[in-house]
C-alpha cells in the first residue's frame, strides 16, 4: 500500500470514534463498538470506496459472546492468514486497518502466530490512540506454567502496544498432560488469576481443535469464559465438536468462537463450498467466527456476509454436511 493510500485509509478512520468498556444496545443506523463508541456511516463509506456492498453494523447483526457480555458480529478477524507471517507488515497492517475501519469488533491473535501481534501493534499505532479500545482483543498462551505464561503475557502486551487484553486463552489444548500442567500447582491457571488481579486480562478462554474431550474436561476444571473450537461441515464425521463442546459451552453460558470454518481455505479452493456458505454454517453454532484473511478485500467480503446473510437454517446446514460428507476426511485433518 502506498503512503498516500495509507493516509487516505487512516483519514477515513478518523471519523470512527472508538472508546473504552463494553458495548450496549444500538440502533441500526448508529451502532457502538465493543469500546462503546459510535461507528455510524463507516461501513457505508468503505462500501462505496471498495465496490463491495456492505451494510452498516446494526443491532440486528450483533450477538453476545456468552458471559463476557461483549457484542460481536458473525465474522471476526483471525490472527492467521497474512497475519501469520514475518516481515510482511506492508501487506498485513492494511488488512487489520480495514477491519478496524469497517467496525470489526473482535480481533484474534497469538504469540505462536509469527508476527501477528506485532502487526496489530503497528495497526493500532497507525489508527490512533483510541483504536485498540474499540475492539475486543484476544490473544493466547501456549505455555503451561505460571511464570513462563506471565512472561509471555507481558511480551504480548508489549508487542500489541496495550496494557491489557480482553481475553487471554489457554492455547491448543491437546491432551490430559496439558490440563494437568495448566491446572496443577504452579500452572498457567495461576497466571490467569494473577493477571486478572493485576487487570492485565478481563476474561479467560480455552482453544483446541485436536480432541473435544480435552476441552470438555478443561471446562470441568475451571469456570472458563469462552471456548474457541473447530466448526465446519466436516465435523460430524468423527470426534465432533458440534455435538459435544458446543452444547456444553452453551449450557455453561460460555462464549463460543468458531475456527477452521474454511478448513484453512481448502473447502473453498476445492470448490466444495463458498466462503459465504461456510461462514454462515459456522455462525449457526458460534457467537462469532474468526477467519484469517490474506487481503483487505477478503475482510470486506466476510463483513458483508456477516451483516447481510443470516446463518444457515437447519435444513441448509444438513444439506451442506451431506455435500461435504463424501470428502470430509480431507477437511478434518487438524483433529487427533
How would you concisely characterize the structure shown here?
This protein has 13 helices and 10 strands.
Name the features.
336 residues; TIM Barrel; alpha/beta; single chain; eight-stranded parallel beta sheet; two-stranded antiparallel sheet; disordered N terminus
Helix/strand layout:
Elements: H1 3-13, H2 42-50, E1 63-64, E2 71-72, E3 75-77, H3 89-102, E4 106-108, H4 116-127, E5 136-141, H5 146-160, E6 165-170, H6 176-183, H7 188-197, E7 201-208, H8 212-221, E8 226-230, H9 245-252, E9 255-259, H10 266-269, H11 275-283, E10 288-291, H12 296-308, H13 314-324
Parallel strand pairs: 3-10, 4-5, 5-6, 6-7, 7-8, 8-9, 9-10
Antiparallel strand pairs: 1-2
- Unreliable stretches: 1-33, 35-50
CATH first level: Alpha Beta
Mean pLDDT over the residues? 88
Q: What's the order of the H and E elements?
A: HHEEEHEHEHEHHEHEHEHHEHH
Structural class: alpha/beta
What is the CATH fold-level name? TIM Barrel
Helix content bin: 25-40%
Trace the largest sheet across and list its strands.
Answer: 3-10-9-8-7-6-5-4
Amino- and carboxy-terminal Cα gap: 40 Å
Percentage of residues in DSSP E strands? 5-15%
Largest sheet: 8 strands, parallel
Rounded Rg: 19 Å
Whole-number total of structural domains: 1
- Please give the count of helices: 13
- In the CATH hierarchy, what is the superfamily? NADP-dependent oxidoreductase domain
Q: How many beta strands in the DSSP annotation?
A: 10
Amino acid at each position: 500500500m502506498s503512503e498516500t493510500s495509507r493516509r487516505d485509509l487512516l483519514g477515513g478512520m478518523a471519523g470512527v470514534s472508538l472508546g473504552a468498556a463494553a458495548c450496549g444496545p444500538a440502533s441500526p443506523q448508529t451502532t457502538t463498538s465493543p469500546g462503546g463508541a459510535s461507528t455510524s456511516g463507516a461501513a457505508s463509506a468503505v462500501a462505496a470506496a471498495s465496490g463491495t456492498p456492505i451494510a452498516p453494523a446494526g443491532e440486528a447483526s450483533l450477538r453476545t459472546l456468552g458471559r463476557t457480555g461483549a457484542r460481536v458480529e458473525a465474522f471476526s478477524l483471525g490472527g492467521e492468514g497474512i497475519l501469520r507471517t514475518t516481515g510482511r507488515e506492508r501487506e498485513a497492517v492494511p488488512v487489520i486497518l480495514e477491519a478496524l475501519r469497517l467496525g470489526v469488533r473482535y480481533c484474534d491473535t497469538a504469540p505462536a502466530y509469527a508476527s501477528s501481534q506485532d502487526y496489530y501493534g503497528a495497526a493500532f499505532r497507525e489508527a490512533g490512540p483510541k483504536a485498540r479500545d474499540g475492539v475486543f482483543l484476544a490473544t493466547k498462551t501456549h505455555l503451561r506454567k505460571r511464570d513462563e505464561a506471565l512472561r509471555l503475557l507481558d511480551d504480548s502486551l508489549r508487542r500489541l502496544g496495550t496494557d491489557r487484553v480482553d481475553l487471554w486463552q489457554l492455547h491448543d489444548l491437546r491432551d490430559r498432560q496439558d490440563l494437568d500442567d495448566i491446572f496443577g500447582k504452579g500452572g498457567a491457571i495461576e497466571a490467569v488469576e494473577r493477571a486478572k488481579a493485576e487487570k492485565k486480562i478481563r476474561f479467560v478462554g480455552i482453544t483446541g481443535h485436536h480432541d473435544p474431550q480435552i476441552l470438555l474436561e478443561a471446562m470441568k476444571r475451571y469456570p472458563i469464559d469462552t471456548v474457541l473450537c473447530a466448526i465446519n461441515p466436516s465435523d460430524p464425521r468423527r470426534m465432533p465438536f458440534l455435538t459435544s463442546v458446543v452444547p456444553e459451552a452453551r449450557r455453561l453460558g460460555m462464549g463460543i468462537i468458531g475456527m477452521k470454518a474454511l478448513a484453512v481455505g481448502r473447502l473453498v479452493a476445492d470448490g466444495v463450498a463458498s466462503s459465504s456458505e461456510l461462514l454462515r454454517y459456522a455462525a449457526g453454532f458460534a457467537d462469532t467466527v474468526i477467519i484469517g484473511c490474506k487481503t483487505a478485500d477478503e475482510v470486506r467480503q466476510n463483513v458483508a456476509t456477516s451483516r447481510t446473510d443470516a446463518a444457515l437454517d437447519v435444513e441448509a446446514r444438513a444439506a451442506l454436511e451431506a455435500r461435504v460428507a463424501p470428502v470430509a476426511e480431507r477437511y478434518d485433518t487438524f483433529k487427533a
